[in-house]
Amino acid sequence: QVQQHRDAITKLVSNSKYDSDWDAQLLGTFQETIALLQPNDMSWFETMRDNIAHAYIKLAEQMAQQDRFDAADNLLENGQLYAPELADFGQAKQTIAQAQNSFQQQQAERQRLAQVTNLENTFQLQTKAGKMSDADKTYAVLQKQLPATDPFFTDTAPKQYALGYLNLANNSAVSGDYRHAVTFVQAGLKYAQLDELKKALVDYSNQAERASLLSMVDSMQASDMTSLKNRLNQVEKLFPNEEGKVSDSLMKKLAQRIEDLKNAGDLVTANDLLTADKQTFTESQLIQRINLPKPQLPSKFAKLGRAAMAQNDLTKAQGYFDEGQTQ
Q1: Cα-only R_g, the chain
Q2: Are 62 and 41 in contact (CB under 8 A)?
Q3: Which of 12, 108, 146, 327 has its CA at a distance of 20 to 30 angstroms from the CA of residue 38?
């Protein structure tokens, strides 16, 4: 019977596996063997016991290689029951503990890198969307995660900041706000001297000058015509490939300004402006074709009435008004 139990244990050890049934079967056969032992069996029994312990150590090492450290610890604990004094258990526990510590460090580093990647992606989306304040906050978090020499700080982030400001500039330009477009481009150039930004700075600066030229018409007086002409010459030099277009748009704006003044009943200012326009822009057929009715000259009674009002003589002023009405 002892030999049968011995053979059964040898077979179980040779087919060792991390399995509760195998573990229970081995323990039961081992305990039955102990009950059958004779004094002359101790030599082979101790060898068999060590073999069982080493089988558990080997299984534990296999579990550790699969990152199943709880299983490895459980196997060592069960295996040590067979040979508590076996020194190999101490070495195995130390080796597995080191492996577990290394695994945990690798896991923590993988999680950190995943978080960094997520933050970098978030930063990119924020800059593309023009959410620069949010991007600044994400950037600050990344500064705690990465060294200052990381490529994100030396290359990636500056370019993404620059392109983000370029997007903001483009959006402003679409709405015709070239001044803000220039401001955004200048902000982007502080981060990276990208060719796209340099080109945008020239384009939007020129467009801002063009828009400024047209805006001069809104408050234009006849005495301002020389300044307008000089400004037109300057802006036209910025658009060498658009010969005539800058001047045409300005003439249309001037014509509309004159029309608006006429419709508002201010024929005096309209005529003054038209006269100055025709003298200044002799080559503009649009301006030269405009004709306006002459404003009515104020009567002598109106002049006398205004003088009386200036002296607070309202009765006298009213008299001049009534007299003028009868003329």
Answers
A1: 47
A2: no
A3: 12
